[in-house]
Amino acid sequence: MREQSEVRSSSPYRDDPGAIRALFDDDRVHRDVYLDEALFELECERLFARSWVYVGHESQVPKSGDFITTSIAGQPLVMVRQADGSVRVLLNRCAHKGAMLVSAPSGNVGKFFRCPYHAWTYRTDGKPLAVPLRAGYEGTRLEACESSRGLESVSTSTYRGFVFARLARDGVAFEAYFGDVLKVLDNLADRSPAGELRVAGGVFRSVMNCNWKMYVENVVDAVHPISTHESAWQTARDMSQTWEHDEPKPVALEQLLPFGSSYDFYQQAGARVFAHGHCILGTQSSIHTGQGLPPGYREALAAAHGESRAAEILAFAPQNSMLFPTLAIKSTPQTMRVIRPLAVNRTLVEIFALEPIGAPAEMLQRTLSYNRLVFSPMSVVAHDDIQVFETMQAALAARGNPWVSLHREHRSDEKQDAPVDVSGNNEILMRNLFRSWVELMQRRPDGSSERAREHCNELA
Ligand code: FES
Ligand SMILES: [Fe+2]
């Protein structure tokens, strides 16, 4: 049987930066980026290890010892609240033989982790605490071995309650990695009169048989809704035109109708791209502009932040923002999608509602309605997209042109130093993320951020 490492070393992309660069040709991208299993392995080792990836929200672990478990490209992680109030992210992997320390999606460990296998214990910061039969290790080399050093801690950064981790020891610092796209998170949190958000109402999970980048591109693809979601918005339009009841139209109709917005609308809606692959769709307006502001909300926001700041907060309501590579934010309704790659052709998307603390309860209800209607596994909108992603994954492998077009509004002198303001229809939003993809995927001369290789296992 061949060793895993032998299989991996056979990839033509592993040691050839030129081969990686050749996959993105300024205005088109090679289909291998969606189809090639070896490239997916490299994405796990390089791209997801070197970027700051969203892990969870502080509100999910309010008390000391509270934890949630998750994974980044095959790396099992546990995010845990410390006694001093800080939040840490650790590899969820016992230092003894590698058992997962906690398997539940969330819970409370109390004052320490205890491995379910042989009961080695660790403080919540990962430091080793106790080992049964300690005397049996005397005179052995355990002390000098990595096994005695506790749980591996991962670089963690928290911004307005959003917790991110970087698996690689070295890399771009958090603030430099995200830059001004962090204003999207400021805006989101400031939409709460208390300046605070809470993840509320559970989570929808949707697994689709497609490459994760298809989903990421779609988040900021303004040209598809009018055609892909035609049946949803036309049904909403027909129902709306014949609505004869006295009571107001249901929220669902209001939320579905704008999916028929025109190309011109998005041209004006505007977009912005940032360094490191991030972008905002809807810098000027969004199909949700003006929706979901219940009575008393503006007043509560003005009382908390002042009239002019409140007006500024409400005026900036991007339709979708992509904090590359895995966090998609909608400013109103306040929802986030977390894209979790499982395999080259399999992607999990988790959908959360964010409750603005101190705002009328109706806002959360509208967000939950939107998530059910548009993003969830029983959505009348997401099905349209998933159908396209899954058939695209199959059809891209068929004979024919191996290149995927990203030409819309491309200019040969396209400015590459983000940020850049563009129209909402410009495919620079996708070109920008592939520029970042190439950068993150190239091998560094010192190989410093390749340590994640040994942990990179495809999730079942
Ligand atoms: S594997 Fe954890 S204590 Fe043995
Ligand atoms: Fe869509």
Automatic annotation (TrEMBL):
Annotated keywords: 2Fe-2S, Iron, Iron-sulfur, Metal-binding, Oxidoreductase
Name listed for the protein in its UniProt record: Rieske 2Fe-2S domain-containing protein
Pfam hit, one: Ring_hydroxyl_A
Domain Rieske: 52-165
Family of this protein: Belongs to the bacterial ring-hydroxylating dioxygenase alpha subunit family.
GO molecular function terms noted in the UniProt entry: 2 iron, 2 sulfur cluster binding; iron ion binding; oxidoreductase activity
Presence of the UniProt keyword Ribonucleoprotein in the record: no
Keyword Hydrolase appears in the UniProt entry: no
